[in-house]
Amino acid sequence: MHAQAARLAFIPRKRNDPRSPERLREHYAVERELADRVRAAATPEERRALFATMYEELFRRVPDHPRLAQRAANTAYRDRNVAWNLAQLAPYLRRGCHFLEIGAGDCALSARVAASASACTRSTSAPRRRPSFPPTSAT
Description:
The chain folds into 2 domains: 3-71, no CATH class; 75-123, no CATH class. It contains 6 helices and 2 strands, in the order H-H-H-H-H-E-H-E. With 139 residues, it is mainly alpha-helical. It has a two-stranded parallel ribbon with strand order 1-2.
């Protein structure tokens, strides 16, 4: 086996990632293919069109992607992270304020802020289809 290929054949597993080495290699191959398409795009318009659908394709082709698994699991860890972020923002949030979250991911924080904000805008590159939001009545 070629030395470079041997190095690429080993992809370290992140802590608590239950996926097999084969699934990790498949995930890596899909991301490389998508990145190659972006690099090959000749114009900003072509890149914009790719970015608009890239994550949908990634999540369709890698159904065990950690980001999807994290969304599916309504865990205490996730709830603690949202609560911590909300606590950091609390001094700046007033009832009726306008809130913008960039890179909103699963929009869990925005959903919690929306309970008291008059306008809540979120921006994310993730697919538009969302699982149900966490309850907005929790504080």
